[in-house]
């Protein structure tokens, strides 16, 4: 999926990139509303929006942890992905500077990219829902990959040494790694997954050393 998106981005000629996943739907005023927000927020690198969620044909309300917002939201993006690709409009020059989606990530590639962008740029946000997300079907990637936080921990690791982050931001990164990693390690021990266990343990130990040195 990342490779397909990156290829499309390379072939594009516009200044902004818009994505649409196969199980999502744009509402009619999606692009018009976001273009207006770009004009009002010329420094933004991403414009995204509120969403409508439908699960197995039934409208559901997102939980508090899925709350969307704009501005400098790097810290808000640490626990989980706060921007849906289908709801986003991304500045192409920034997308290119960041290297696009990480093609080695089978999932959480959006989480990884938004972290990289939001660590350096503000985002604009529409409180008006501009997409519908349909879920509950059997072929969702979130059902295929159960240890999603493994990829989030891998995405967080480079930020511990990112010179552009403040000490407070790095501390929040380290705390998030320890929190997510500790849960993963318990699961790996239970299921005898030694390969991923050792990798995650090294990342968690590095984060804990950062915290202890404060």
Tell me about this structure.
The protein is an alpha+beta fold. It is built from eight helices and six strands. Strands 1, 2, 3, 4, 5 and 6 form a six-stranded mixed sheet that branches. It starts with a helix and ends with a helix.
How would you summarize the topology of this molecule?
Layout: H1 2-11, E1 16-18, E2 24-26, H2 30-40, E3 46-55, E4 58-60, E5 89-91, H3 92-97, H4 109-118, E6 123-135, H5 141-144, H6 148-156, H7 167-191, H8 194-212
Parallel strand pairs: 3-6
Antiparallel strand pairs: 1-5, 2-6, 3-4, 3-5
Helix/sheet category: alpha+beta
Strand content: 15-25%
Spatial extent as radius of gyration: 18 Å
**Pattern of helices and strands:** HEEHEEEHHEHHHH
Helix percentage range? 40-55%
Q: End-to-end span in angstroms?
A: 39 Å
Please give the number of β-strands.
Answer: 6
Count of runs of 4 or more consecutive helical residues? 8
Shape: globular
Mean pLDDT: 94
* Low-confidence runs: none
Summarize the biggest pleated sheet: 6 strands, mixed
List keywords for this structure.
8 helices; alpha+beta; 44% helix; 214 residues; 6-stranded mixed beta sheet
In short:
By secondary structure, the chain is of the alpha+beta class.
């Amino acid at each position: 999926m990342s490779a397909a998106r990156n290829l499309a981005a390379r072939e594009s000629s516009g200044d902004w990139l818009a994505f649409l996943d196969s199980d999502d739907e744009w509402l009619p005023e999606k692009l018009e509303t976001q273009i207006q927000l770009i004009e009002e927020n010329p420094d933004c690198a991403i414009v995204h929006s509120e969403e409508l969620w439908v699960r197995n044909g039934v409208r559901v309300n997102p939980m508090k942890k899925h709350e969307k917002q704009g501005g400098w939201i790097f810290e808000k993006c640490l626990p989980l992905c706060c921007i849906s690709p289908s709801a986003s409009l991304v500045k192409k020059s920034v997308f290119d500077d960041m290297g696009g989606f990480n093609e080695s990530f089978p999932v959480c590639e959006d989480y990884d990219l938004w972290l990289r962008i939001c660590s350096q740029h503000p985002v604009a946000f529409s409180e008006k829902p501009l997409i519908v997300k349909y879920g509950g079907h059997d072929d969702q990637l979130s059902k295929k990959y159960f240890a999603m936080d493994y990829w989030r921990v891998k995405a967080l690791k480079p930020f511990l040494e990112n010179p552009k982050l403040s000490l407070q931001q790095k501390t929040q990164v380290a705390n998030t790694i320890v929190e997510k990693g500790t849960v993963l390690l318990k699961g790996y021990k239970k299921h005898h997954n030694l390969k991923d266990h050792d990798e995650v343990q090294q990342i968690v130990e590095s984060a804990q050393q950062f915290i202890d040195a404060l």
